[in-house]
Amino acid sequence: MAVHATQHTAAGLVLLLLASAALAQTPIAPATADDQTAPSPPSIASSLGAFGDPGGVRAALREKGVAYSLNYVGEVFGTVHGGLKRGAVYEGKLELQVDIDFEKLTGLSGLAFHANAVQIHGRGPTRHTVGNLMTISNIEALPATRLVELWLEQALFDGALSVRAGEMAADSEFLISDTASLFINGTFGWPPTTSANLPAGGISYPWATPGVRVKLVPAPGVAILAALFNGDPSGGSSGEPLRHNRHGTHFPLHNAPFLIAEASWAYNQGKAGLPGTIKAGGWHHFGRFDDRRFAIDGPPLADPASSGIARRHRGNTGFYAIADQMLWRMPDGDRNIAAFVRVSTSPGDRNEVSFYADGGVTFKGALAGRPDDIAGIAFGYSRISKRARDRDRDARAADPTSPIRSGEFLIEATYQAQIVPGWSVQPDVQYIRRPGGGTPHPLHPPHRIKDAVAIGLRTTIQY
To answer: Cβ distance 220 to 232 under 8 Å?
Structure first.
């Protein structure tokens, strides 16, 4: 299966590059203001000499508004203490991204296209060795070759308003801390108040789903985002969600919708003061959700006399707030210290996780001779809802050895070392207290899964 997946990926890359080359023959228009100001991501191409852009094709395409990138993330994680078992696993993700600026390409002002696809391989540490709630790696998923995003965006009024439509991932814009992007644990992307509570884990990696997003910029540094998505990216099938719509080529529209909105204020951007960003948002899912404790006929689900069918609730809601703040920087800006904090809540009667908090500090240029390296330490905490804990107490009444969950706590320490621009190596250590909130070990009940320590090494290559 892995060989076939790799073949499909290679074929997809060739087709997209050929399509880009064909587009390169189209006349161009002047660059937009956004293109002139947006920094290009670091690329290993700058260190490859003539092999970085054979024949100058990539530069010629970019001049005409067609940009592509290839990124590879590979990592080894070993569980050295606790968890489900000791052992090491390897996993990787190859990603292709294509962006087209139609103003450069055809003269259509403000119109942009984006697509990305991934090939995921290997075995994830959370599933195979740890068994925790906050996923050890933000690339962990079932092996597959899949389309992720495929959308068009139209900007209006000099960028003050933009509308995006197509196959989209909500976690590419919503509920995200920029400072937290250094860390490897998946909780620093979308937290368990969405990933553990929403159908199929929510509209976050590796999922995308049809939707429409509107962005309004009423003043410099102020942005308002709102989006409406199909609420179940798997299509609503039973069983393991990632085994459905495995290649991302089904575009479900029949599921209950998911609405999310966020407002942000970025201050001191480009000024003498220390920059920061404050965000606040909320979401609502219009589907139905099972009660965490009670059956439809009234008694607790753990009561043998109950129907065993959970009471249903209409809709689900969450709120969140995020702050990113630079704490210190050198006058040249190369070295700095930044911090983030984020909190999120959801109602406890229909969700396993009712409260989440995380925070951390990063130090860019922690070693004076390595200004591009970044060190960081962060924590995450997921609290099991009271209704779910009460269900555990009901189960204990019948079985005194049954554990009562409380919450899961995580500490991650990491160091991202840049070898050359576009290539980094990142050692990482994570300590997980009460994996799963204190859930029993599947092979050794009623004993809980032991606190775990996972050590990893990631390499990232961007082209």
So the answer is: no
Containing structural domain, residue 50: 2-462
Q: Residues near 82 by Cβ (< 8 Å), separated by ≥ 6?
A: 432, 435, 449, 450, 451, 452, 453
- Inter-residue contact 245 to 226 (CB < 8 Å): no
What CATH number does the domain containing 303 carry? 2.40.160.180
Between the CA of residue 332 and those of 337, 365, 394, what are the distances in Å?
13, 12, 60
Domain count, the chain: 1
CA atoms within 13 Å, Cβ hemisphere of 233: 32
The total of other beta-carbon atoms located within 10 Å of residue 239's CB is: 8
- CA 287 centroid distance within chain: 23
pLDDT, tens digit, for every residue of 14-68? Answer: 333 333 333 333 333 333 333 333 456 789 998 888 889 999 999 999 999 999 9
pTM of the model: 0.89
In sign, the C-alpha dihedral spanning 433, 437, 440, 442 is: negative
pLDDT tens for 391-401 read 999 999 888 88
